[in-house]
Amino acid sequence: MELIRGTLDLLILNALASRAMHGYEIARWLEDTTDSALSIEEGSLYPALHRMARRGWIAADWGISDANRRAKYYSLTDAGSDQLGLASSRWLRFVEAVAKVLKAAPAPNTP
Amino acid sequence: MELIRGTLDLLILNALASRAMHGYEIARWLEDTTDSALSIEEGSLYPALHRMARRGWIAADWGISDANRRAKYYSLTDAGSDQLGLASSRWLRFVEAVAKVLKAAPAPNTP
DNA sequence: CGCCTTCCCTAGACATTCTAGGCATAGACA
DNA sequence: TGTCTATGCCTAGAATGTCTAGGGAAGGCG
């Protein structure tokens, strides 16, 4: 399912809030957590991770994965934790506002 | 507030589901409905309306506004009504999936 | 050895929103 | 009368973020 723009950071921050993970792991964590409702393309994921590292929200360390391969583990920084709080509340306020809009109109035909 | 990409169509479709409106009216309807939590920039609104008309979701007719000025009134077509149903359910499924992600992580610090 | 899986990466296409303008007219008010 | 504000429509180009469509290296299994 195509992600709605601007939510990937929020998803990644949440993933890393539970524990440090490498990129591939984040992608599978997201699918597991959402029962495959959401999935990240690698072409979106890695640029997003680099962007977030550049902004100081996450830190990277090379390590060895469970499958015994080299993997870059990302963890949340303090700034990243702050950002998670901001992004979460922004998201919740947005969802609430959209809910008002959906409620304002008569129920759409749901076949 | 900057809109999250991909939601503008949904908002407009909902506005027009309640009644036919001209562009300026849609913008104010959205602010009223969301207690100013959301607002559309004109530079986003008009291109979106043209795009949606091109896709056959809405139809345009020139008329005279309450303020006695010429205004282009948009109304939902049958295809637009279908699209509203699709976009709504897609949005709800997405929000639900993100909720699972937010619940998966420990509560963020909300200062 | 060959293949699948894991794991990382990038360039360019694409879509959508915003910034920053422009233009026209009605009505209020001086 | 002239000017100002609110109404109403529009566009070009920048900025952003995701996806498509690749490429590559290495572990483990048959």
The CATH superfamily name of chain A is Winged helix-like DNA-binding domain superfamily/Winged helix DNA-binding domain
Instruction: Tell me the overall shape of chain A.
Output: globular
Unreliable spans of chain A are: none
Spatial order of the strands in the main sheet of chain A? 1-3-2
Mean pLDDT of chain A: 92
- Helix proportion range of chain A: 55-70%
Q: Can you tell me the CATH architecture of chain A?
A: Orthogonal Bundle
Total domain units of chain A = 1
| CATH structural fold name of chain A | Arc Repressor Mutant, subunit A
Distance between the termini of chain A: 20 Å
Proportion of residues in β-strands of chain A:
5-15%
CATH class of chain A: Mainly Alpha
Number of strands of chain A: 3
Largest interchain contact: A-B, 40 and 40 residues
Q: What is the element string of chain A, with H for helices and E for strands?
A: HEHHEEH
Radius of gyration of chain A (Å): 16 Å
Largest sheet of chain A: 3 strands, antiparallel
Structural class of chain A comes to: alpha+beta
Counting copies of identical and different chains, the oligomeric state is homodimer
DSSP summary: helix tally of chain A: 4
